[in-house]
Design a protein that fits this description.
The protein has two domains: 137 residues, Rossmann fold (3-Layer(aba) Sandwich), CATH 3.40.50; 232 residues, 2-Layer Sandwich (Dihydrodipicolinate Reductase, domain 2), CATH 3.30.360. 32% of the residues lie in helices and 25% in strands. The chain is built from 13 helices and 17 strands. The strands form three sheets. A nine-stranded mixed sheet has the order 16-15-14-13-7-12-11-8-17. The chain has a six-stranded parallel sheet with strand order 3-2-1-4-5-6, with helices on both faces. Strands 9-10 form a two-stranded antiparallel sheet. β14 and β15 form a beta hairpin. The longest helix is centred in the C-terminal third of the chain and has 20 residues. The chain is globular and about 60 Å long. About 4% of the residues have low confidence. The structure holds nicotinamide-adenine-dinucleotide.
């Protein structure tokens, strides 16, 4: 018997996509749009890769040859003026985010922007307010919250299964910057990156803590340091952390290698957050632990597809149970037919893309009012979430400088509180 396709599958709505910055993240955004219909057919959307904007000719060539963009340009304004571009991905170095996000919002184009949203809280606020004023849907690249195991931790907390949450521990340790001969790229320059590891990695931790507990970080006491103070100055442009040439001249690192913060959440829950980009041996060791009066649960990105949980009193078998992700945990069922089959980092971006486009299709969502996708997972992290993380970053930097507790301004419209 022939099976009829649904209306959404038969006549998906075409959606023109523009991607700014065709490095690591821009390419991942592009492939997420390309693969959307295979994972989320009921959205009835057919993203069309209309235009890529990147100054590097090799990235423009890759955009067309590897990803199938119809056009590739070096001028962002030309891309934004293209009426065929309905939504925009912003995946440039941090200092260019605002200069793309503001005109995109003014042109009424929803945008998916990488984290950290701006180089500081002031820029992030401008971006959030522009999106809110324009009423456009937005998404921010806090991809780790989409891991099915993380979604389940949030569900455990929301259902009260762990009892009253007492404290949370989160760390993000990596060694991408641990070589003193790694190039002094934009990431180490305060004017182009903003904060160092606080914005680059710890902002993911801020989002994880707030998303899983549903509570905002309200005050922080922090210390920061720069362990590798000089790096060789690049002599060529390139993509990613290290793919550039360097000369013999060295320059000063302008932002943090390491941060440790004590934090209080709005309901009194305690939190500790720590992050390093120079922790030799830790490749991408990102972890979250949630403790409550009835139990605790923990997740690590190094074993992304599982979590450990302990609830109640296990008698002589008291201890953690390891649970492999399966259908019923976040969007796992979209990607694998049976339990325990690993998903990938790229899949987290595919989920983010679907959440973003769900908000775009809902047309009432966006900054501060995102519609819940039918998939059962959370709404896309939006610019309110991006601003909230930026406020925490800034409070941490101020606390470290003043050696005192600093209050964090709260932001309305975040998705983690919903
Ligand atoms: N969500 C995550 O887990 C995650 C991971 C890595 C990076 N990021 C964020 O993504 C953003 C990009 O990082 P990346 O690792 O992809 O960097 P990258 O260096 O790989 O890519 C940046 C790209 O931007 C392009 N670019 C530079 N100037 C431009 C301009 N004026 N117009 C258009 N394009 C321009 C560069 O040519 C390059 O291709 C950063 O904000 C970073 O913090 C997020």
């Amino acid at each position: 018997m022939a099976v009829e396709a649904t209306n959404a599958e038969n006549s998906p709505r075409s959606l023109g996509v523009g991607v700014v910055g065709l490095g690591w993240m821009g390419r991942l955004h592009a492939s997420s749009y390309r693969n959307l219909a295979a994972r989320y057919p009921e959205l009835g959307l057919a993203p069309r890769l209309v235009c890529a904007a990147d100054p590097l000719p090799e990235n423009q060539r890759a955009a067309r040859a590897q990803f199938g963009f119809e056009r590739a340009v070096d001028d962002v304004e030309e891309m934004l003026a293209d009426p065929e571009v309905d939504v925009v991905s912003i995946a440039t170095p941090n200092f260019l985010h605002r200069d793309v996000a503001l005109p995109a919002a003014r042109a009424g184009k929803p945008f998916w922007i990488e984290k950290p949203m701006g180089v500081d809280a002031a820029q992030s606020r401008e971006i959030h307010e522009a999106a809110r004023a324009a009423g456009v849907a937005t998404a921010v690249g806090f991809n780790y919250r989409h891991a099915p195991a993380v979604e389940h931790l949030r569900a455990l907390v929301a259902a009260g299964r762990l009892g009253r949450i007492t404290n949370v521990r989160c760390w993000l340790y990596a060694d991408y910057a641990s070589s003193p001969d790694g190039p002094l790229t934009w990431r180490y320059d305060r004017s182009r990156a903003g904060a160092g590891v606080i914005g680059d990695l710890l902002s993911h931790g801020t989002d994880l803590v707030q998303y899983v507990t549903g509570q905002g970080i309200s005050e922080v006491s922090a210390a920061t340091d720069v362990f590798l103070r000089e790096r060789p100055i690049p002599t060529s442009a390139g993509v990613g952390h290290g793919a550039v040439e360097v000369g013999t001249e060295r320059g000063e690192v302008g932002n943090e290698d390491w941060v440790a913060a004590l934090a209080n959440l709005a309901d009194g829950t305690r939190a500790t957050l720590e992050s390093s980009r120079v922790a030799r041996g830790h490749r991408s060791d990102y972890a979250l632990e949630v403790y409550g009066t009835e139990g605790s649960a923990r997740w690590s990105f190094t074993r992304m597809n599982e979590f450990e949980v302990m609830i109640g009193d296990g008698g002589l078998e008291h201890g953690y149970t390891t649970v492999l992700a399966g259908a019923g945990h976040g969007d796992y069922g979209r990607f694998q037919p049976g339990p325990g089959i690993p998903m990938s980092f790229d899949d987290l971006k595919a989920i983010e893309c679907a959440e973003f486009l769900t908000d775009v299709a809902g047309e009432g969502g966006g900054a501060g009012g995102a519609a819940r996708p039918a998939s059962g997972s959370g709404a896309a992290p939006n610019t309110a979430d991006g601003l909230s993380a930026a406020e925490v970053t800034e409070a941490i930097a101020r606390s470290a400088a003043s050696r005192s507790w600093v209050e964090v301004p709260q932001v309305e419209g975040t998705t983690w509180g919903a």
